[in-house]
Amino acid sequence: MDGRTEAANVLHGVMAALAHRAPEGMRVYAEGAFALGHGACLTTPESAFEHQPVVMGERWVLAVDGRIDNRDALARLLALDAAELARTGDADLFAQAWLRWGADFWRHVEGDYALAAWDRDARQLTLLRDRVGVRPLYYAVSSTLLAFASEPEALLGLEGVSRSCDGDALAYLLGAFDFDDMQRTFYRDVRRLSAAGRLVADAEHGVRTDCYWHPEPWGEQRPDDAEGWVAAFTEAFDVATQRRMRGNARPLLLLSGGIDSGCVLAAARRLQGPNAALGLRPLSLVETRTPFSSETRNILRLHEGSDGLRIPVEDLAAQEVFSMLLDEVWNAPHPIDNSLSYARLGCLLAREAGSRVVLDGVDGDTEMSAMSSLAGWLAVTGHPLRGWREARMASRVNTYLQGASPVRILLRGALAALEPGWAARWRYRRQAAAADGPWIASGFARQLHLRERRLVAAIQARYRRKQCALHDRRAHDFWHPGVLRALEGTDRTYGRYGIEAWHPWCDQRVVDLLLNVPEELLARDGWTKWLARKASAPALGEEIAWYSGKSHLGSRLTPTLVAAGHARVTALLAQAPDLLAGVVDADTLARLWKDWQATPADAIHTVADDAMHIATLVGWIERYRLQLS
Known about the structure:
By secondary structure, this protein is α/β, with parallel strands linked by helices. The chain folds into 4 domains: about 5-210, 4-Layer Sandwich (Glutamine Phosphoribosylpyrophosphate, subunit 1, domain 1), CATH 3.60.20.10; about 225-365 and about 490-510, HUPs (Rossmann fold); about 370-480, no CATH class; about 565-625, no CATH class. Helices cover about 45% and strands about 15% of the residues. The chain contains 26 helices and 16 strands. Strands 3-4-5-6-10-11 form a 6-stranded antiparallel β-sheet. Strands 14-13-12-15-16 form a 5-stranded parallel β-sheet, with helices on both faces. The chain has a 3-stranded antiparallel β-sheet with strand order 8-7-9, with no helix packed on it. α7 (about 260-270) crosses α21 (about 530-540) and α24 (about 565-580) packs antiparallel against α25 (about 585-600). The longest helix is centred in the middle third of the chain and has 18 residues, at about 225-245. The chain is globular, with a radius of gyration of 25 Å. The mean pLDDT is about 90.
């Protein structure tokens, strides 16, 4: 930003920190005060023709981490014939779209992307992130430097960029506060470009950010009835899945026994020709010793007729792939990545299988979430019989309310709907005063004013529930920093292995549809995710689509990883009092240390979650030489 011609030297350090994302190597464009690098990960047949950064004539230089989903439609707009399109990678399509429409190219391009475009004439940089926010983009600004990257850690330690943790982020990692600033990251001096975010920078005007797109409710195109919505969802989800099956090799699907990843499998089956192989390859953790859990029984049925990979959970520690996972977890710890151990395991197996793409059911929970007080809300809005029926059915089949009294479900929902504002604020104050949790030090909580801020956040959330339109509430929930952190953590986890995560639930068409679907089609007849279950039942079978339990075999990974890494965990926990002083409660740490030392190996699961939590935090701080200020 100060005109020094040292950008190339800075860039090499940033790119070195991202080498794991570039199995096909890196290329750099450098011109005085500006430099742009790109690491190649070839995931589609057309990507073999790409050479980034793309230099477009005398004026523009562009690099993109992304995928275009509407290639055929875009080719028609750009007057490319089929032969040209087959030899044109997505990066070159992005470049041609940029030359045609400039920063408004997003109106014509569908897909996931983080893009940087340098205007050599105006000496101006533009950064853009896709509308859903699937591809991450981080930046840091100092008095002399603007730097950006696909991972925030690559920017730490640059000139004017400290290694200080963000205080709110530490509170979040300790379970005490879910900060809602869309641009803040775990690091004080590194920012995130938000979903649909645009950054424009030059030496004269500095750095400016804004959002180029906001979700809008549908107008006349809404289906007329439930069957119409089911058909619309089925069509949108099939398109989303088909778009994500055009990789160099068959993508893997992380398949659990639930409906989120089950929807992806259902779409793949609908897209399957009569004599064609399934377009993706399922990968699941399963039990091999009876009695099986309901999740394993579902998974085995879902795998029927496919060449899917099944990993025996009981003997996991004896497998070679587990040794690689263990090394990653404890030698490259990260608070988000270590919570995605199942995804890490899937990446290792995908790499062995020669796949560069993994599909999953990530974010189905957020997009298909519905109010837990639906029965009571129906009762107090003039539909008491429907409310009573909903409560009775929820007590039978709802994953979270199963077994509860229908009367209790109905009354709690009605009270939540009718609770006056003064009573809600009184309750929020009591909850805020008791919500620091066991880990965070009281002085640190006071320093961040957590209680006051939790109270404000609760009041704002109540206002959204009571006053905002359904579309706006859904948009807030979907584009919440917690959702973006999950997507970014998945991207970083997969990127570590030179693999990309492609998410059908995060397709723009699917997101748009689910922002507009009526509330009663998300939760209906007691069922959560009714619309997805109804759409998937013909392909998955009624028994699996309408399964009401909830289990996750991936949760067995944590105690196994903690037990196998006992020596490393012990060393990290021993450092915790010094490294986390003033941030984590000293008495709670002392109790954890005492319990850890007293716990026999065959009972390690009783302290595994807490040990994983604190050991990971310490390892992360140690790995990046972070400062807790």
